[in-house]
């Protein structure tokens, strides 16, 4: 039933997992400093903003062709990424990647939200588990390939073929919801005004969850090796543990969501994530830090998919299918800023006060999900 959006999320996992695994080699080939590399990678945030702004229009324009179209285009981005020799080439590839990954991600979430509405089945966590498990598997596989010196110019084209196959499979994986006709300008304005009380707190939930998730993915390896003295290469266990536990957590979240409901699940998960991040910040050895990563990942695992599902449901209740599309896409516009701001924020905090303090602040940011959830539920009740 959810084959098309699942294929899209697996393709995204292939991309980010391969980028994370080969980043040291890409950095060496482009000759960029840490600061310059971070600035170049931020080009993906510009693409993400463009994609979120265009999401409602592209959904109406492409309909059921949205996922395979974006998926095929993303598969092609693997090639310039594997060949990038300087900041302009890498920045251009990341700009395209940010646009296509975000468009694909939003399209998949809209499709899953509509399927949940039609079937009353909690599919969001199950589909997002496939992304996390793919990320973990690809990161671990690339660690092995790099150990035997398989170059990025060989691996990424091979992964591009897999991503292309996933995109083609999305053509046969069901249809997107029927495109909603473009309403009059006055109706569009009224819909946007009605949805902002949902979009702002919903976007805050996604923003904080993205900061927590990407902060651990990008900085846990360095924390293990630099702060705690783990052996060179052992830091890769941090991102691997993150992806593995998040995947398993999302599989388990599928059943828990049906029992607890979205609001209770988000509340419990945010509290667990905060505890895990504090353990990671305070841990005095690698074992405690890995336990903190696992606990943090278990909490973060369901926040994005469950939050997206809740926003989509409340948006549809307030303004129909257009409310679902506009609510999810605009909330993701704010949320994706956290995905790209997280590593940058962590870098600045680490430079100023060390990674322990950076992860402690990360716990505080994730804790802000709780008041944002209260505001979202209050807005949903008032709009009912």
Automatic annotation (TrEMBL):
Arranged from A to Z, the UniProt key words for this protein are:
Membrane, Transmembrane, Transmembrane helix
**Localized where?**
Membrane
Entry-linked PROSITE patterns: MFS
- Indicate how the chain sits in the lipid bilayer: Multi-pass membrane protein
Q: Is Cytoplasm among the key words of this record? A: no
Annotated GO MF terms: transmembrane transporter activity
Q: Name one GO cellular component term.
A: membrane
Q: Which residues form the Major facilitator superfamily (MFS) profile domain?
A: 158-384
Signal sequence interval, chain numbering: none
TM annotation in the entry: 36-54, 66-83, 89-108, 129-148, 154-172, 193-212, 227-249, 261-282, 288-311, 331-349, 355-377
Q: What is this protein's record name?
A: Major facilitator superfamily (MFS) profile domain-containing protein
Q: Which organism is it from?
A: Pacificitalea manganoxidans
């Amino acid at each position: 039933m959810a084959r098309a959006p699942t294929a899209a999320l697996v393709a995204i996992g292939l991309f980010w997992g391969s980028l994370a695994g080969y980043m040291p080699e890409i950095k060496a080939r482009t000759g960029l400093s840490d600061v310059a590399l971070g600035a170049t990678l931020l080009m993906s945030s510009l693409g993400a903003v463009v994609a979120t702004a265009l999401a409602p229009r592209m959904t109406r324009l492409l309909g059921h062709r949205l996922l395979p179209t974006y998926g095929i285009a993303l598969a092609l981005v693997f090639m310039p990424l594997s060949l990038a020799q300087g900041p302009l080439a890498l920045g251009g590839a990341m700009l395209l990647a940010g646009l296509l990954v975000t468009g694909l991600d939003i399209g998949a979430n809209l499709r899953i939200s509509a399927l949940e509405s039609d079937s009353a089945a909690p599919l969001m966590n199950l589909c997002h588990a496939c992304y996390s498990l793919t990320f973990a598997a690809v990161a671990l596989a690339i660690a092995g390939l790099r150990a035997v010196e398989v170059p990025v110019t060989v691996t990424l084209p091979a992964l591009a073929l897999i991503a292309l196959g996933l995109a083609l499979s999305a053509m046969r994986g069901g249809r997107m919801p029927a495109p909603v006709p473009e309403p009059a300008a006055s109706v569009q304005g009224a819909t946007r005004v009605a949805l902002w009380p949902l979009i702002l707190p919903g976007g805050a939930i996604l923003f904080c969850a993205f900061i927590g998730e990407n902060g651990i993915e990008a900085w846990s390896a360095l924390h293990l090796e630099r702060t705690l003295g783990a052996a060179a290469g052992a830091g890769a266990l941090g991102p691997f543990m993150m992806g593995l536990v998040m995947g398993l957590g999302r599989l388990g979240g599928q059943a828990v969501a049906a029992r607890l409901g979205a609001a209770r699940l988000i509340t419990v998960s945010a509290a667990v994530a905060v505890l895990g991040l504090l353990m990671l910040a305070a841990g005095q050895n690698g074992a405690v830090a890995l336990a903190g990563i696992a606990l943090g990942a278990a909490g973060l695992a369901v926040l994005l998919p469950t939050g997206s599902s809740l926003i989509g449901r409340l948006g549809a209740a307030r303004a129909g299918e257009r409310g679902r599309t506009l609510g999810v896409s605009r909330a993701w516009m704010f949320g994706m800023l956290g995905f790209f701001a997280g590593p940058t924020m962590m870098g600045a905090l680490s430079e100023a006060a060390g990674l322990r303090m950076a992860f402690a602040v990360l716990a505080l940011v994730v804790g802000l999900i709780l008041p944002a959830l209260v505001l979202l539920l209050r807005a949903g009740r008032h709009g009912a």
